[in-house]
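Case study 2.
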Amino acid sequence: MQFIDRVEIEVEGGTGGDGLVAFRREKYVPAGGPAGGDGGHGGSVYLLATDNLQTLLDFRYAHRFRAEDGKRGGNNNCTGASGGDRTLEVPCGTVAYDLETGEIVGDLVEPGQKVCVAEGGKGGHGNRHYLSNRNRAPEIAQEGRPGRIRQLRLELKLLAEVGIIGLPNAGKSTLISVLSAARPKIADYPFTTLVPNLGVVRKPTGDGTVFADIPGLIAGAHEGLGLGHEFLRHIERTRVLLHLVDVTAENPLEDYRVIREELVAYDRGLPERPQIIALSKLDACDRTPEEIQDLSQALQPDSDYPVLQISAVAQQGLDELLNAVWELLDQREPEFV
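Prediction:
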């Protein structure tokens, strides 16, 4: 399944039904007067959050969505039927932006959350509304009003509590595959992971916590280089960042600074997010224990927990890592940004 996390669509509310010009035609009621009914209101377009979807793929090829028009008014002051609403299901975590103004129309984070993005037009008045002392037989009625047309940009921000970040090949995909049932593509070349991967990790209490492996972060990611510009937004909602630093790299400290600078440049509260730093790939490291300790001490000021040393392949230090994650999550209340 393709992972589509940004689309542009057009939504349009239905047009209201026209009012009717009609008169009472009863045998024993002379000069019965106007009896034209109002037109029905046009249907509206809604977005509905559901946890059955993980991507915006449904909007990849269908870009225009319109609600049903209202029906024309009837005789005997009968109001026309209102048009049916159009409800578009989107994944939880979807944000809808108005393309013209840039404002947020809706931020859907909970299953069942619903927002109207295009209101239907009102139905027109029938001629009964125009009865007056001067005009006892009005032959005018109001046309239905058009529904609202809106251009929207839908962006999906994954609802993960823990975001795993780091340079390509830092071991993010391997870690999430060991901790959860996720099975991302893993290889020994950069940009193996082309889409965010989600995995559910069980707490000791039995509750599930969603971890997200965020791919493609490199220098300049916030400006669109690599894949990071597309996926940085997926860690905006995370409560804790897990930053993996590859100890087999030539300069691990510089690698860490590259990612840290990207978070600062992207901002949106990410630099202040609680962070756990873990030195990864310890099983393949040829550095001395003293060198690793020096790295830990150099990174410690930026970590909200003692810098950890792990190996996902050898499953070394993972219990301590998870305990650190649970501790920070307990300290930070859930919030959506």
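The first helix runs from residue 172 to 179.
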